[in-house]
Amino acid sequence: MPSTSLPTHHDAPPGLQAWLDTVDASKEPSVREVTIDGVRCVVKRRRPGLLRGLSYGLRYLRAFGLALGSLMFLGEFPRPSVLLRNGLTYEGQRLRRLSEAGCRVPNVWAEGPGLLVLEHVGDDMADLMRAAFVEKRREWARGIAIDLAQFHDQGHCHGGAQIRNVTLRDGQFWRIDFEENIGEALSLPMAQAYDLYQMISSLMGLRKLDDPDPVGLGGLMLNAYFEARPAPQVRARLRRLARIVCGSASVLRPIGGRMRGRDIQGFFRVADTLRALL
User: Fold this and answer.
1) What architecture is domain 30-46+87-119?
2) Domains 30-46+87-119 and 123-277 share a fold
3) What is the mean pLDDT of the chain?
4) Cα–Cα distances in Å, from 13 out to 19, 35, 37, 40, 99?
5) Helix 232-256 vs helix 262-274: crossing angle, to nearest 10
6) Domain boundaries, the chain
7) Where does the pLDDT of residue 51 fall: very low under 50, low under 70, confident under 90, or very high at 90 and above?
8) Would residue 44 be called left, alpha or beta, if left means φ above 0 and alpha means ψ between -120 and 50 degrees?
9) Span 34-50, mean pLDDT?
């Protein structure tokens, strides 16, 4: 299991601002990894749409739909106006707060309108899990679950706790991608239950994951989390979600169970994993 010691950060490359000044921002992708002076960085950009009013209206409708889904599945209605407080500015603020709290998240190295430059904090756990041998995969799965429990125990939530948003550097797990605001729009126990659900479901639906017992892998993560942190309020809220997921799976399995799609089979694996809570 990775160490719980404080994270060791890298310093920003001295030539970062000069590099930013020479790049045509209009031709840059939304996310780019770049090496400057031998130091790896992650450059994130968001360009405002031409129809900003229409864009806001569509985003509000999306947030309202997400809030309704949350009410149906999670039993809480997060205000759409809170859900809309997201994006790079919001992510930069969250990263600073989490870094000050000693969490393993990337440092913010540069920030501006539609721009966020972050410290690169290791290899994508989704890729590592795909390539790992079975025993190593299980070791990492258990470690990721314990790491999430420790993160939650400090009073935090991620809001995007999928496997792809966890990295590994120097034997420690790090957390990335804090743009979404659903976690902070919910009560803390529900936000943490949603994190746990995201972690398990993202592993169950991971593309090209060749594992002989994916449901056992999900169960290992679930058990490791609650062994490290009993969290009765989180368990109760995850149990509510489990009833809905498992009930839906029971109805859909006679037909859907024959379909080989990754997302479809991932849904049934999540249901089989969460059934242990019922």
Assistant:
1) 2-Layer Sandwich (3.30)
2) no
3) 90
4) 10, 9, 6, 8, 19
5) 130
6) 30-46+87-119, 52-83, 123-277
7) very low
8) beta
9) 88
Nearest CA-CA partner of 261 in 200, 216, 207, 217: 207
Q: Residue with structure tokens 């972690």? A: 199
In this structure, which amino acid lies at residue 43? V
Is domain 123-277 given the CATH code 1.20.810.10 in the classification?
no
- 131-174 pLDDT, tens digit each: 999 999 999 999 999 999 999 999 999 999 999 999 999 999 99
pTM of this structure: 0.92
Distance between CA 198 and CA 278 in Å, rounded? 18
Nearest one of 186, 162, 164, 234 to 69, comparing CA atoms:
186
198 contacts: CB under 8 Å, gap ≥ 6 = 158, 160, 161, 162
Q: Which two tokens stand for residue 218?
A: 């999900």
CB 2 within 8 A of CB 173: yes
